Amino acid sequence: MTHAIFLPAVALVALTFVVWLRMYFSRIGEMKRERVHPQAVATSAQMAARLHDTRAADNFRNLFELPVLFYLALVVAALTAQASVPVLVLAWLFVALRVVHSAIHCGYNKVMHRFLAYLAGGIALWLLWAVLAVGLLRA
Fold first, then answer.
1. Each residue's pLDDT tens digit, 6-56
2. How is domain 3-138 classified at the CATH fold level?
3. How far apart are CA 139 and CA 133, in angstroms?
């Protein structure tokens, strides 16, 4: 089951790649439509001032916040032989909720819907870490 613990990581990397592609195509498209020279958006402040659709870029950045703790949790689970069914279920739950969060964020972007998906994913992540912590304390 040790290798199975890394499959949720692969899935989250795939989601990050999809959001990256969405960001790339939406940014390039908007820059072409609005005739924005690349140098005019050299900083994040310039980007925010010149481009209007920042959903994918905002979500892409978000995929490097809580997920950092997720990736570390999977490594801890693998290294400490804690790749159990409950750990895998929580890992896949986190990934599923991140997919929902990204779909909302990059799509219709209703803040309360996005927040609920984010909150649920955060709870799944904290539960994952609680399970790992208990396992570490018992070892």
1. 999 999 999 999 999 999 999 999 999 999 999 999 998 998 899 999 999
2. Four Helix Bundle (Hemerythrin (Met), subunit A) (1.20.120)
3. 10
